[in-house]
Amino acid sequence: MKKKIVLSVNAGSSSVKVSVYDVEFEQAPVQIAEAQISGLTSPPASLKYVRDGETVIKGKEVDEKVEGQRDAFSLLLETLIDDEDLPQIKSKEDVGIVCHRIVHGGDYTKPQLISNETYHHLEDLNDLAPLHNANSLGIVKLCIRDLPTANNVACFDSQFHSSIPEHIRTYPINRDIAQSNHLRKYGFHGISYAFITRSTAEFLGKRPEELNLIALHLGSGASACAIKAGKSWDTSMGLTPLAGLPGATRSGSVDPSLVFHYASDVGKLSPASTKDLHISRAEEILNKESGWKALTGTTDFGKITSAAFSTDSSDHAVMKLAFDLFVDRICGFIGSYYVSLRGQVDALVFAGGIGEKSSQLRAAVVNQISCLGFEIDEEVNSNNEIKDVVQEVGKTTGERDKPRVLVCQTDEQFEMARACAEDAEFW
Questions:
Q1: Which architecture, in CATH terms, is 206-408?
Q2: pTM for the full model?
Q3: Out of 64-68, 195-199, 244-248, which region has the weakest mean confidence (pLDDT)?
Q4: Matching CATH topology for 3-156 and 206-408?
């Protein structure tokens, strides 16, 4: 089969990223460009464009009217087509496959070629991830219209977790209601965890099915995952991405009754709801008005960390509270998963923007769980920039059966393109 140009589209709540790959069937994708528009929720939006590893546009303020993810994607596609130094995409017809990151895939266990039937089924799942799926589906609809010669493929954040055992994914509620309303643990960040599992196995010289990990995807959205024999065994997010660890604006797990004591109107629909998208005031509070922003006034974890470690800072106390709270919640999941995996853990893996960049957080977490045999190498952890896809930051001397401490530069766009490259249905 001939080569295809594959676009991997990752639509977040405030950004859209498109990675461009040159792909041969059953071969590893080769990235040739990447473009991103960020700041959609805090205009003016800005454009970054990288071609063949060289930054072409960095943080350029977008002059055009960009009112959402669809507008952002259209501008990114235009940027790629208009670039004379990117001969692989001279027109829309040059795009062979567009793979879309869809947060909630319900019971889908693998990527799906998007047909009318698939699209409408995904629309029905919007209420389970109202702050995520709708943005992605808007871009899917646009691609179906504007890129008629391309195959559209949905890659799901939930699909990696389809292996979670029934006794872990089941909620202790009325079973008939749970089944009819699809109420169970689904889990998210699965595309990232698939990349982490494969990359860590390669780093440790093992087959994925021989590997047990505790993996942490830590960013503005944060989660933990127990991976047993290369498959998801348990994860901190649940029916929706809200459960588990706190994030930039998410509360993470709280007492279910808390929200009813928080405000009197939590059962009503939020003003942000539309006829197609139903968001309760409770969901809005816990998803968008909580987390580090509610505690500290900022969503920037770098600022929180700096102030937490500086006693001269005027907001030192509240920043340290947020930092310590995050460490505590992370360690709680690590301890639980260590027991669930019966102590058979090859490595603890940090990933995501915070996991990759915050040496202070990694050190604090590993020091707190040192009783489980994890040990940080202070010098390597604090002094070395993370350059490799997987890098060791734990102590490697002494007992070889001690669990490793690793950092993985996860790449969801590559993982989606790789999945497309391996499935003949998409070609």
A1: 2-Layer Sandwich (3.30)
A2: 0.94
A3: 64-68
A4: yes
